[in-house]
Amino acid sequence: MSSEKKDLRIVILGCPGAGKGTQAKRLCQRFGLTHLSTGDMLRAEISSGTSLGKKVEDYLRRGSLVPDTIMVELACAKLDMAQGGWLLDGFPRTLPQAQELQGFLTSCGHKLDIVLSLELKEGEVIKRLTSRWSCPSCGEVYNLLSRPPKAAGKCDRCPAALTQRPDDTEATVRRRLMVYEDLTRPLVAYYRGEHLFEEVDADRGMEEVAQAVAGVIEGTVLARK
Ligand code: AMP
Hints:
Bound molecules: adenosine monophosphate
Largest sheet: 5 strands, parallel
Shape: globular
Strand order of the largest sheet: 2-3-1-4-7
Number of strands: 7
Distance between the termini: 21 Å
Strand content: 5-15%
Number of helices: 9
Radius of gyration: 17 Å
Helix content: 40-55%
Low-confidence stretches: none
């Protein structure tokens, strides 16, 4: 996919395992956006052993949400530093977070261009997530069913052994799905009401979903700009 720098502000929603991270990276490459993933930010804090990392690690391990006050502060600080267009992946995840984001953007004279939601059924989520492994060294993500590494248990790009995210075990995935339905699903109605919302079927191959997502952005936001 070619990179064409666009000044877009996008939120991507989707239940765990819907492929948010993968699609977010592709979109950022294609449209020249800064990728702001709150999950990645938190994991970086945890692996660097910062005080924030220590505060949040239990929430991630259990598959619970980190408190809104912490998340709003973290996300707004990163948004403040971002130059040009960006894509928020994993934030907001609750209505209060969405309202705070709205207030923050208004105070900067900005607004969201679109909210995308990747939709996937529960059975597929569990199958996908429990087979997701990644490289602790370069971050490359593999799926034992749809995108296995060339040599079992090894990264294709570096000599590291693949690891599983501690929150990708089946019990934790089920808990994360419940949390998504209870706390994040209400954002669909919130953003639909603001006419910013587009749904994409994520029960397809990665390439097909990427084409569909880019098509939605081109057919809606870019067609209006
Ligand atoms: P993700 O990589 O987006 O699946 O996020 C991994 C975990 O980080 C989530 O299960 C939560 O524990 C935490 N997290 C990430 N973003 C948020 C957020 N916006 N609000 C609360 N917790 C979050």
